[in-house]
Design brief:
With about 260 residues, the protein is α/β, with parallel strands linked by helices. It is built from 8 helices and 7 strands, in the order E-H-E-H-E-H-E-H-E-H-E-H-H-H-E.
């Protein structure tokens, strides 16, 4: 299937590792020109070397610190000056584990700025170029916690849920401009972030991390954690020409982990 991504310009946030790196890599392999953004670009250069030789030049590492508004606006100006992007993948790291009772006001404010407010601001800044071309794809990465809250991840559950509401609202506003806006919610995908959460759970419970991982996998109908590439394939499709009638949707990629319909 030709996804129609050849020559499209994409910006992928949080692209140094995990889901962001897998998405950026997938888009590049499908022919898109990718700006891969992260606080540290060294790890981007590492995975770029795993691409076929003829696709390595399609990836441009760029600096972005989502916790720093000046960094967000600097990248926005850089992208605007080069004509904007067709595809925006909003992806951020997650906060440290904490319960709803423990999370402090300062933590909520700091994480909302980095995980939501600055993403919303960047998206608004890049929208005019998409409108001018009458084509665009905005895909925001959330978490299965927006549908089935994850214990001890109160801030992540809350802030990412705000992104879902914002995305749905935006989807209704820009659809007539040929722009789609969707959210993809990963379940337990085998990334460094999930490994870190397993280690944290092991520390709290006193159980070996291997047992925590086995228990988590057993709760997933397919019986295993997902691969980053499996998740990236779904995002890449939503970013493509072929997904032109999918708008305002929340798509789960979780192996059946969330039991609601």
């Amino acid at each position: 299937m030709d996804l129609g991504l050849a020559g499209k310009k994409a910006l992928v946030l949080g692209a140094s590792r995990g889901l962001g790196a897998a998405i950026a890599r997938s888009l590049a392999l499908e022919g898109a020109d990718v700006r891969a953004a992260a606080r540290g670009t060294g790890r981007i250069a590492e995975w770029v070397e795993t691409l076929p030789a003829d696709r390595r030049s399609a990836v441009m590492p760029v600096h972005l610190d989502l916790a720093d508004l000046a960094s967000v606006e600097a990248l926005a100006r850089q992208i605007e000056a080069s004509g904007g992007v067709d595809i925006l993948i909003n992806n951020s790291g997650g906060p440290a584990p904490s319960s709803a009772q423990e999370a402090k006001r300062a933590d909520w404010i700091a994480e909302f700025e980095a995980m939501a407010a600055n993403i919303m601001h960047l998206t608004q800044t890049l929208l005019p170029a998409m409108k001018a071309r009458a084509w665009g794809r905005i895909v925001t990465i959330a978490s299965s916690g927006v549908e089935q809250p994850i214990a001890n991840l109160a801030i992540s559950n809350g802030v990412r849920a705000a992104l879902v509401g914002w995305s749905k609202t935006l989807a209704g506003e820009v659809a007539t401009h040929g722009i789609t806006v969707n959210v993809v919610a990963p379940g337990r995908i085998a990334t460094e972030r999930v490994a870190s959460l397993d280690e944290s759970a092991a520390g709290r419970s006193g159980k070996p991390v291997e047992e925590i991982a086995r228990q988590s996998a057993a709760a997933i109908p397919v019986g295993r954690y997902g691969r980053p590439e499996e998740f990236a394939d779904v995002v890449t499709f939503l970013a493509s020409e072929r997904a032109s009638y999918i708008n305002g949707s929340l798509v789960r990629v979780d192996g059946g982990l969330v039991r609601s319909i």
